[in-house]
Amino acid sequence: MHSVVAEVWRGDFLESVHHGTVLATGPDGSEILRIGDVDAPMYPRSSNKPLQALGMLRAGLGLDGELLALGCASHSGEDIHLDGVRAILASAGLGTEALRCTAALPIGEGALRAYLAGGGQPSPLTMNCSGKHAAMLATCVANGWDTATYLDPHHPLQAGLRETLEDMAGEKVTSTGVDGCGAPLFAVTLRGLARAFGRMASAPEGSLEHRVTRAMNTHPRYVGGTGRDVTRLMGALPGAIAKDGAEGVYALGLPDGSAVSLKIADGSQRSRPVVMVAALRRLGVDVDGDETLSALATAPVLGHGEVVGAIRPTF
């Protein structure tokens, strides 16, 4: 099902490998690169968020710009993120107590240090999915739906988000689970995920799909955070939409409709950006001509705080 997609070299010694599945498609949806079974069901995890945001816009959510980008985010927990979550909730007449996501600490290294230094404790607000949950709550208020049960997979909100995912992926959801934040999680294939991201990135100006893509690409720091690879990736690719997810998932769409979706089999995050950039190279993106992309093309392996090796793609 999976093949080796990345190697971990410590000096001249091959120490470890990462297996995975990768699909890169051209503007017409044709396969440019396929590794592994891209038609097997998988959970997109947080790579679902742009599609969930689209579903919320279709249901009447009024967000745009950086707050819409935050609704698609797995944010680092920086001040701009927390203030933005409060702003989304306030626009719906709600406070942070309405959030039903799992209490957690910020995932950004700098944000975590600052938060702990101030005596912070795990909370729903600092959970990396709080932007999505705030947007979900605002969508419920806009429609007069119950806000206490918005995480129920049978809630009108979640039914609409499932319908949007199926529409954009061009396939039916095959399994429903619970994501780390408590929201329903719908399984599709890597092929469906790539199809959805290609459609998002190539949608015409004025469409809701373009609204999501523009918000994320214009405000990439709200989608991830300072130094995060997803933020850096969108900053280097004008008009692109990209979203990382737990368990080694990554999806990206380019303005011409090309797309990449991938999953690292062991769930590791460290090889995920490396594999993504290798797939972009196969799509003809000038990786070596861009400082950010070339930096993401490998990942350092450290020994005693010094770089002693690298994580490299196998293709």
Which helices and strands, and how do they pair?
Blueprint (H helix, E strand, L loop, with lengths): L2 E8 L2 E13 L5 E5 L5 E2 L6 H10 L6 H7 L7 H13 L17 H9 L12 H14 L12 H14 L6 E3 L5 E3 L1 E2 H13 L5 H11 L1 H4 L5 H8 L4 E5 L3 E5 L5 E6 L7 H11 L8 H6 L2 E5 L2 E8 L2
Antiparallel strand pairs: 1-2, 1-12, 2-3, 2-10, 4-7, 5-6, 8-9, 9-10, 11-12
When the domains are counted, the total is: 1
Written as H for each helix and E for each strand, in order along the chain, the element string is EEEEHHHHHHEEEHHHHEEEHHEE
**Stretches where pLDDT falls below 50 for ≥5 residues?**
none
SS strand fraction: 15-25%
N-to-C CA distance: 17 Å
- Kindly provide the name of the CATH class: Alpha Beta
Helix proportion: 25-40%
How would you sum up the global shape?
globular
Count of strand segments: 12
CATH architecture: 3-Layer(aba) Sandwich
CATH topology: Beta-lactamase
Structural class: alpha+beta
Radius of gyration: 19 Å
Short note summarizing the structure:
The protein is an alpha+beta fold and 315 residues long. The chain is built from twelve helices and twelve strands.
Report on this model:
- With 315 residues, the protein is of the alpha+beta class.
- The protein has a single domain, classed as 3-Layer(aba) Sandwich (Beta-lactamase), CATH 3.40.710.
- It has 12 helices and 12 strands.
- Strands 1, 2, 3, 8, 9, 10, 11 and 12 form an 8-stranded antiparallel beta sheet that branches. A two-stranded antiparallel ribbon has the order 4-7. A two-stranded antiparallel sheet has the order 5-6.
- Helix 1 crosses helix 8 (208-218) and helix 2 crosses helix 8.
- The protein starts with a strand and ends with a strand.
- The mean pLDDT is 98.
- This is Asparaginase.
- InterPro entries: Asparaginase_II (IPR010349).
